[in-house]
Amino acid sequence: MIRALRGVLVDDEGFRGNVEDHQDPRNSLLCEVLGRRRGIPITLCVIWLDIAGQLGWPFAGANLPLHFMVRPVAPGDPVFIDVFHGAAELDLPACEAFLSGRAGQPVSLGPEHIAPAPQRIILLRMLTNLHAALTEREHWPGVLRVAQRMLALLPGNENLLLQIEMLERLISDGN
Known about the structure:
single chain, alpha+beta
């Protein structure tokens, strides 16, 4: 299953991580990722999960610190697939070593990282990435739209409510 998906998505179709401009907001938009075949880990994983799901192959998202991966849902020791880096297969120690290198400190994965990531968490993480990319570019109308969508997933969140109020004021004062 892994080899087949890697063959089609990575080798044949050329899906890969956008290492040149990781913060490009287009990396967080599925329609753009599908067209450009470049994205960030989570958007590439969502495509992988959708294709695997259509085939009836049991894969799940792995909500890891600093990086998102997929993994086959199977008994035994977990295997993580780093879709961003050519669909490299990592066992648990290799995954922890990879994440530790990114974090600059030891990372130990617990059951919450191995459990399948719920769709709501995946969507929220995608929106968070888009929010950060748009904020970096100071695209305030876009940041506002993303914050409003995040609020739909986190109703009543005081930080988001405050942010939306401030963004509405900023945008209104800029006109």
